[in-house]
Amino acid sequence: MPDATFLVRQRSLLAFAGKLMGFTLLAVLVFIWLGPVILVIMTSIKSNDAFLAGPFALPTEPTFAPYVTVWNSLGFGRLLANSFLYAACGSALAVVLALVPSFALSRFDLPGKKIVFGVILTGLMLPQQTVLIPLYDTLRTLSLLDTRIGLIIVHAAYGMPAQILILRGFMTTIPREIEKAAFLEGATDFQVFWKVILPLSVPGILVGFTLNFIAIWKEFVFGLVLLNSEANFPVTVGMLKLNSDRYMAVFNLPAAGLVISQIPIVILFLLSYRKLSSGNFAGAVKG
User: Fold this and answer.
1) How many alpha carbons fall within 13 Å on the CB side of residue 65?
2) In whole angstroms, what is the distance from residue 41 CA to residue 235 CA?
3) With helix as H, strand as E and coil as C, how does the chain read?
4) Average pLDDT for runs of 10 along the chain of length 287
5) Which of 15, 112, 158, 270 has the most CB atoms lying inside 10 A of its own CB?
6) pLDDT tens string 252-283
7) Of 77, 90, 69, 76, which Cα lies nearest the Cα of 223?
8) Domain enclosing residue 158, as ranges
9) Residue 208 sits in a domain of what CATH number?
10) Is 283 within a domain?
């Protein structure tokens, strides 16, 4: 019969093996996720000849010339400004349009509420290609085709269903006691929405805004179809010039452009991470 020392050692070995397997799996997943990112960054700081000589080799003579070339040749500052305008204004407008419907769907017992909510959510199921023709005709009729305001409105309308889904779910978690206390103080429905529900929904608003901002920043189809002037192009459409050749012979320039285009998203995540993860209702309801 095995002694106690042997059993302790066996359990320790099994625990160590489990931790080792978990660490190995985590390392593999991290490599799979970070591998392409690292490869793009390495490509962006190589000369094209160095890349062709060794695509996966570490850069021996790093250079930032591709970044300078891309920035100057594409007018990257204008492209980034356009993308920021579309993402910020489109996301903000989508949130504003979704606030009142989300409040009504989360706090009121309306007839046919589930049907209305289901109809709204169908907007999440429609691929962009299915709405391109009606959107194009609508914008042309309203003289908003190839305009910044037109694309902002499109992004806001297309992002509103996702905002309603996020905000309705968030507002549903707000304790009813807070709302009842406000009504006992003589507050109206609008005052409850404006002074109680809206301030407590800031974390949900930030989540919805951030996700929609990222989605609009990466969006390509609407910008390609609904815009014709290069002055209005977002960064995703403007970077097409880097791949305009039938057989692409330069690899470091697209990699540099890709890195530049993702920097604002990384900054947004770093700035919003604490706020996104710290929202709660601690102390909102007294015991």
Assistant:
1) 8
2) 18
3) CCCHHHHHHHHHHHHHHHHHHHHHHHHHHHHHHHHHHHHHHHHHCCCHHHHHHCCCCCCCCCCCHHHHHHHHHHCHHHHHHHHHHHHHHHHHHHHHHHHHHHHHHHHCCCCCHHHHHHHHHHHHHCCHHHHHHHHHHHHHHCCCCCCHHHHHHHHHHHHHHHHHHHHHHHHHCCCHHHHHHHHHCCCCHHHHHHHHHHHHCHHHHHHHHHHHHHHHHHCCHHHHHHCCCHHHCCHHHHHHHHHCCCCCCCCHHHHHHHHHHHHHHHHHHHHHHHHHHHCCCCCCCCC
4) 65 79 87 87 89 85 90 90 96 95 88 86 84 92 95 94 92 87 84 89 90 93 93 92 64 89 87 64 42
5) 158
6) 888 999 999 999 888 888 887 776 665 444 43
7) 90
8) 75-244
9) 1.10.3720.10
10) no
209: tokens are 């805004």
In this prediction the pTM is 0.84
Count of domains for the chain: 1
Q: What DSSP state is assigned to residue 196?
A: I
Q: Tell whether 270 is covered by a domain.
A: no
User: Which DSSP category does 9 fall into?
Assistant: H
SS3 assignment, position 127? coil
What distance in Å separates the CA atoms of residue 164 and residue 176, rounded to the nearest whole number?
19
H or E element that contains 26: helix 4-44
Residue 16 maps to a domain: no
263 lies in some domain: no
State the amino acid at position 284 in one-letter form.
Answer: A
Q: Which two tokens stand for residue 238?
A: 């403007």
Q: How many of the other CB atoms lie within 10 Å of CB of 158?
A: 22
